[in-house]
Amino acid sequence: MEPRVTTTIPADLPLQEPVAAKSVRRRARSPRPAEDATDRGILGQADRRRTGVRTGNVVINVVLGAALVVTGLLPLLWLAKSAITPTQDTLTMPMRIFPNGVAWSNVTRAWNDVHIQDFFWNTIWMAAGEWAVQMIVATTAGFALAVLRPRYGRVLTALVLATLFVPAVVLLVPLYLTVLHPPLIGHSLINTFWAVWLPAGASAFNVLLVMRFFESIPREIFEAARTDGAGNFRLFWSVVLPMSKPILGVVSIFAINAAWADFLWPNLVLMDIGIQPLSVRLPQIQSSTDLGVYLASLTIASLIPVAIFLVFQRTFLSGAGLGGAVKG
Question: Which residue spans within 255-294 are E strands per DSSP?
Answer without folding.
Answer: none
